[in-house]
Structures are given as structure tokens and as C-alpha cells.
């Protein structure tokens, strides 16, 4: 195998490494790797982005289910740009914690909303996450960092959708994931 192929495999592998392994490794240089690692380095972002994908798949709305994570990524990107410009969202940390709790409750309750409601709802939740990403974005290599956290977010959504599709016929399993999200969200709310 050529070295270039090994670098590509190594970069792809980083998408699946738990954030804790990268959090203090010195990889956070403000560039692409830092952006890729960021969504994996906090349980709030990690769980919320996985839950978005699981819930989108649980809606069982075929290809339209992609509108849910697309709405999240679009709104997150806009909010991140605002954060990078120094514009903060009020109650950002509480909003992030609430998003985890709320997404968990949606799954726990087996709530299936029409896409015209589901996609904008998730988009609103994404504003808090995106703003946090933008405010934490280093000034140097911001474009690479930006691309990294968007790529990592899409990867987490796709992982969640894959898991949701595998479990779509097992409501008890989806509700279990929702319960776990609700518990995590509640603990985050208490900490926020």
C-alpha cells in the first residue's frame, strides 16, 4: 500500500475514534484534525448528533429522512458562522443540554412527526450546537476547522441513521436509545 493510501485510511479512522482519546493528544492545532475531533470530544455534541440520525431513521420516511440531518447541518453551519463572528446565542449551554434531552424523549416516546415539522425542529436545536462550534473555532486555519467539524457531524448523523435503520423494527431498542439520551440530557441539564 502506498503511503498516501495509509494517510487516507488514518484520517478516516479518526472519525471513529472516541473523542476522549484525542482530547489531550496535541492534535488540536486549529486545523482539520481539530475540527474533526471536536464533535467527538464532548458527550453533549456526540450524543445529540447520533440521536438526530437515529430519530431521522426512526421516522421511517424513506429518503425524506435525510432532510432531518441536512436541516441540522445547515442550521449548525449558519450558527457556527455567527459564533465565529462573535455572535453568541443566549442560553447556549442549556440549549445544547436540552437538545440531548429532547431528542432522547422523541425517541423514547416513539414520536413520529411529519417532515415539515421534524426538519425545522432539529434545525432549531442545531443552532445551539453550531454556535458553540463557532465560538470555539480557532482563528488560525478556521476554514479547515470548519470543514472538519461539519464532516464529523455528517459522519455522526450517518452512524446514527445506520443504527436507527438496523433497529427500526425493534421499537424497544429505539426507546432504549431514547431513554439513554434522556438520562444523559437530564444530567447535562442539571450541570448546565
If you had to describe this structure to a student in words, what would you say it looks like?
It contains nine helices and no strands. It has 192 residues and is mainly alpha-helical. The chain has one domain. Helix 4 packs across helix 8 and helix 6 runs antiparallel to helix 9. The termini are far apart. 39% of the residues are buried. The N terminus is likely disordered.
Number of helices: 9
- Give the integer mean of the pLDDT values: 85
Strand portion: under 5%
Major sheet attributes? none
Poorly predicted ranges = 1-28
Class derived from helix and strand content: mainly alpha
Shape: globular
Q: Give Rg in angstroms.
A: 16 Å
Number of domain units? 1
Order of helices and strands: HHHHHHHHH
Number of strands: 0
| First-last Cα distance | 48 Å
Q: Helix coverage percent of residues?
A: over 70%
Layout of strands and helices, then pairs:
Layout: H1 3-14, H2 19-22, H3 32-37, H4 43-58, H5 67-84, H6 92-108, H7 115-136, H8 142-167, H9 171-191
Helix pairs in contact: 4-5, 4-6, 4-8, 4-9, 5-7, 5-8, 6-7, 6-9
Q: What's a concise summary of this model?
A:
The protein is an all-alpha fold.
What brief labels describe this structure?
192 residues; mainly alpha; 9 helices; globular
